[in-house]
């Protein structure tokens, strides 16, 4: 069959090249996308929730733009007009849904009985000092909304949020980012202005740039490493080039299929060509080794027909070994196919495919190329290294001395044998060695942190990280969690019974977690509406109009409120220390309700003695926290005491005693009427402008730590379960929640992939050696290597994430080759001798060099990743090198230790087929 298959080698060569050319044309279809949601399957609950939230409340794909004045304040007439110009131009970009900036953000105030959502900066802004001062006062007056959202504490920086349309692809997001950058570059030409961009589209763009840069640099470097290893191994051009060609072609095939199937190319995918080049060359090396071994046995010149027979003979001898090596490696990589994380599945499938392609090309393309060698080249290879050795030997150089040493060395134990004797040469040493591995692994594993924040993949000194840190330091944060609160019926979100605990939840989270920069929800707007509708007016207005015209111009009904029933109670509790005078100072209605704003207005209009002022200040100081009080807190308490600008009513209307209402149901009507009076839009926070059933809480974070995010989400859900009324549900979503979910998925998928890998190793070895005990023996060193990998991660503070979770699969996929190599050679020697120590020594002499060389070549190939611009890929390079070292050493120490202690029968069993040797 082999002879028929290779009857026309040029057909094989041309076919392989044509297939390669076809797949190469598909490489241009690879779309790089590293947006967070690309990592989760579309059917996952968190993905579905995010999509539903965006459909209801708008996109979470936001480009943040920060403009900083290097000198002076950003709040000047020129810069405000600049912001207005930029805002208006970006609003016209095709992919942009909404722009929020200092120039157009809403400012809620009352006028003519209505709640107006005007602009913080008026349309007639002329830039006068008075207007600028007014803007500052407005910003300070609604701290919950504006603080660190649109302007920094030092008034030098302002932030704009550009919300993109929902459902955009990576190319459309990039187009929007390019358009935004162009507008800002054309408009913000003042050299005093520094511009910073943040947001998920910016991170994705930076990741793509890093990936292109890495692939342009790293792939040639990996190729160079493989070339050096191959040339030092074979000392010939064809021995170097042919195995290399197979891995390059297999990489093109694998990536071409990705492009053809429109599989997204992520940071994880960028490891595929490196892995294939570093690992896949082994099959070509095996084929070339057997070819040269058979060729060296020929005593005389070799003709073309004899050369063909030598190639087929070498291929027949190596075929079972390379197929077994490929199957075991594929088993290691394919263990990730069950991962719920899409990039890990893609990595698993296409790396496994690449390994299969490397195998197929090694056993077909390489022999075909050898068969069409020029006849004058048949029977010899380039003797570059052999020539050097011959010259050194002829001159009596140290190389000759080394040769002499090697001829005398067999009588002495090799380094590998001495290493085996030290670590596992007796039952006691093997047990102690195993216990040390388990102990140090347990110590390191306890220190492992699971964190999937994509931003952490970038080095701390990269521009994208510096920009994020800059914005996090000056504003509320660049990361977000959204809490979705759902009632059962329309209008449920207007009930004070939910609005008050919702507002208290926001306060609880902000006070508990310093990483939270801002929380905003529907309750934030209700408090502002309530405040605006209770700003004290001139007391003369109340004295002249209240009793005679309660339903007229200045009573509560003048603001559009419906009359409440006669059961409404008066204000039952006012602070005794702040007396508004006797009953004569109060005006009320027939139902007994007395408007406290009359007393507030009167008090604000009266002079205050020094004693009264000091008493008021002392009370504000105490209420604000005493010695821990801040100036801002004291001022806030003073404003509440005097209800300055309605500060005493910046709250959820919850207590009927303070309002013209007898029950909380009537207070719900009050909130509903606020919505009727409101002229602005609350689409980002409630699902219906009048009778909302669902509300959204936006939590801005100055952290990417999934540990902190997990704490916030769990705390919020626990608080809601304890304090929210029955019938309301709360769940978290948003980019931060996706990263938290990815952390959980990595842990679960890692356990499944490890179990799958070890079971696969057990089955493969059990079938190959026809004994379940062989599977157990072979699995032990691989398990130890994986534990030591986790130990290294814990000790050196390397997070367990999507990338480092690949190491276990690589350890199994490559490490099992060392195990099979050693156990196969040990069985051959064991069937020839009963002296177990001699069997071990000869096995190490026969297989040790091959195992070490393979481990070095793979480890060095992956070490090239240390030159990556991504921090996480540097970790991959280091960890794979460590795993290659540990798995090879363990295969040559633990396995002979176990085999010599138990002397298993399957190692003494005769082989059925002579060719297996």
Automatic annotation (TrEMBL):
Residues 244-372, 775-901 form the SSD domain. Signal peptide: none annotated. It is a multi-pass membrane protein. GO terms for cellular component: plasma membrane. It is found in: Cell membrane. Gene3D superfamilies: Multidrug efflux transporter AcrB transmembrane domain. Keywords: Cell membrane, Membrane, Transmembrane, Transmembrane helix. The chain crosses the membrane at residues 215-234, 241-261, 267-289, 310-337, 349-372, 422-445, 751-769, 776-796, 802-820, 851-872, 878-902. InterPro entries: Acrflvin-R, MMPL_dom, Mycobact_MmpL, SSD. GO terms for molecular function: transmembrane transporter activity. It holds the Pfam family MMPL. It comes from the Bacteria. This is RND family transporter. It comes from Breznakiella homolactica.
């Amino acid at each position: 069959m082999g002879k028929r298959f290779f009857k026309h080698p040029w057909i094989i060569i041309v076919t392989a090249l044509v297939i390669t050319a076809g797949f190469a044309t598909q490489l241009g279809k690879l779309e790089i996308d590293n947006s967070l949601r690309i990592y989760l399957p579309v059917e996952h609950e968190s993905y579905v929730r995010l999509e539903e939230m965006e459909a209801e409340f708008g996109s979470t794909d936001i480009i943040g733009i920060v403009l900083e004045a290097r000198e002076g304040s950003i709040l000047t007439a020129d810069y405000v007009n600049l912001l207005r110009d930029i805002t208006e131009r970006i609003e016209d970009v095709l992919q942009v849904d909404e722009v929020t900036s200092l120039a157009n953000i809403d400012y809620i105030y009352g006028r003519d009985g209505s709640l107006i959502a005007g602009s913080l900066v008026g349309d007639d802004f002329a830039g006068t000092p008075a207007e600028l001062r007014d803007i500052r006062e407005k910003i300070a007056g609604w701290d919950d909304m504006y603080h660190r959202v649109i302007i920094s504490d030092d008034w030098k920086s302002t932030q704009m949020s550009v919300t993109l349309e929902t459902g955009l692809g990576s190319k459309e997001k990039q187009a929007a980012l390019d358009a935004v950058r162009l507008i800002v570059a054309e408009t913000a030409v003042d050299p005093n202005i520094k511009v910073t961009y943040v947001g998920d589209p910016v991170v994705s763009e930076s990741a793509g740039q890093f990936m292109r840069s890495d692939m342009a640099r790293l792939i040639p470097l990996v190729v160079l490493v493989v070339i050096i290893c191959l040339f030092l191994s074979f000392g010939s051009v064809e021995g170097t080039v042919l195995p290399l060609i197979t891995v390059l072609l297999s990489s093109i095939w694998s990536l071409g299929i990705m492009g053809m199937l429109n599989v997204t190319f992520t940071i994880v995918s960028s490891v595929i060509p490196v892995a294939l080049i570093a690992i896949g060359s082994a099959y070509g090396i095996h084929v070339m080794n057997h070819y040269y071994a058979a060729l060296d046995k020929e005593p005389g010149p070799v003709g073309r027909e004899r050369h063909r027979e030598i190639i087929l003979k070498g291929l027949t001898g190596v075929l079972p070994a390379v197929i077994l090596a490929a199957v075991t490696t594929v088993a290691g990589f394919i263990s990730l196919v069950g991962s719920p994380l899409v990039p890990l599945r893609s990595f698993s499938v296409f790396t496994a495919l690449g390994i299969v392609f490397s195998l197929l090309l090694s056993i077909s393309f390489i022999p075909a190329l050898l068969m069409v060698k020029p006849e004058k080249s048949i029977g010899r290879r380039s003797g570059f290294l052999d020539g050097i050795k011959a010259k050194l030997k002829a001159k009596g150089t140290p190389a000759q001395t080394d040769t002499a040493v090697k001829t005398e060395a067999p009588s002495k134990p090799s380094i590998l044998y001495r290493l085996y004797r030290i670590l596992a040469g007796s039952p006691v040493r093997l047990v102690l060695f195993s216990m040390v591995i388990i102990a140090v692994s347990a110590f390191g594993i306890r220190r492992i942190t699971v964190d999937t924040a994509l931003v952490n993949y970038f080095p701390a000194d990269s521009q994208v990280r510096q920009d994020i840190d800059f914005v996090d330091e000056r504003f509320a944060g660049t990361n977000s969690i959204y809490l979705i609160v759902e009632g059962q019926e329309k209008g449920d979100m207007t009930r004070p019974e939910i609005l008050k605990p919702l507002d208290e939840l926001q306060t609880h989270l902000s006070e508990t977690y310093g990483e939270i920069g801002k929380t905003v929800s529907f309750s934030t707007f209700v408090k502002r509406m309530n405040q605006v509708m209770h700003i004290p007016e001139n007391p003369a207005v109340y004295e002249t109009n209240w009793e005679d015209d309660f339903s007229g111009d200045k009573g509560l009904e003048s603001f559009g409120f419906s009359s409440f029933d006669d059961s409404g109670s008066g204000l039952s509790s006012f602070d005794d220390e702040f007396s508004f005078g006797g009953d004569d100072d109060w005006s009320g209605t027939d139902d007994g309700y007395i408007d406290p704003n009359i007393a507030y207005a009167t008090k604000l209009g009266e002079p205050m003695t020094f004693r009264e002022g000091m008493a008021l200040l002392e009370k504000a100081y105490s209420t604000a926290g005493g010695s821990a009080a801040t100036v801002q807190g004291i001022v806030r308490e003073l404003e509440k005491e005097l209800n300055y600008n309605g500060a005493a009513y910046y709250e959820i209307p919850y207590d009927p005693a303070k309002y013209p209402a007898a029950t909380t149901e009537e207070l719900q009507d009050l909130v509903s009427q606020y919505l009727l009076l409101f002229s602005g839009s609350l689409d980002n926070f409630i699902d219906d402008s009048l009778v909302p059933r669902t509300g959204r809480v936006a939590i801005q974070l100055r952290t990417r730590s999934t540990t902190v995010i997990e704490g916030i989400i769990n705390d919020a859900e626990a608080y809601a379960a304890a304090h929210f009324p029955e019938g309301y549900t709360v769940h978290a979503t948003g980019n931060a929640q996706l990263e938290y979910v990815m952390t959980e998925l990595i842990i679960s998928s890692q356990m499944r992939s490890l179990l799958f890998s070890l079971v696969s190793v057990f089955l493969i070895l059990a079938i190959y050696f026809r004994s379940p005990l062989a599977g157990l023996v072979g699995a032990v060193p691989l398990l130890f290597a994986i534990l030591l990998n986790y130990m290294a991660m814990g000790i050196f503070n390397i997070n367990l994430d999507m990338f480092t979770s690949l190491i276990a699969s690589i350890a199994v996929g490559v490490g099992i080759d060392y195990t099979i190599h050693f156990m196969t050679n040990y069985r051959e020697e064991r069937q020839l001798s009963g002296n177990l120590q001699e069997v071990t020594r000869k096995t190490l002499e026969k297989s040790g060099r091959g195992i070490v060389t393979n481990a070095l070549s793979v480890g060095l190939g992956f070490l090239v990743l240390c030159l990556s611009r991504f921090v996480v890929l540097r970790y991959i390079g280091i960890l794979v090198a460590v795993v290659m070292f540990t798995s090879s050493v363990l295969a040559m120490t633990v396995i002979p230790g176990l085999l010599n202690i138990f002397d298993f029968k399957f190692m003494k069993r005769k082989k059925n087929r002579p060719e297996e040797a």
